[in-house]
Amino acid sequence: MMASYDIQGAGHKDTLKLICKTSLKANQLIDIGDIEGFQKMSKVYDSLMKSGKFTAAQNKAESGEFVDSIGELIELCEKEGYIERYYVE
Length: 89
Hints:
Order of helices and strands: HHHH
Largest sheet: none
Number of domains: 1
Helix content: 55-70%
Strand content: under 5%
């Protein structure tokens, strides 16, 4: 997780520790057949992942892998040196 996400500060590290503990507990609960406990722990896990911005969508959004404004689109076109011409009849 440290290699996959931008970890900054003690808060992020603490959240990661809680996520790991929650994941371990969820695995233990499912191993003993406690489905209700597992479902509750899974909700906690998901909540921690979202609050720490450790979900795939949040990670992708912050890594700049997509264009989210017209300014970025124009900058991309200027860097490429041309704008493809598309004709619509």
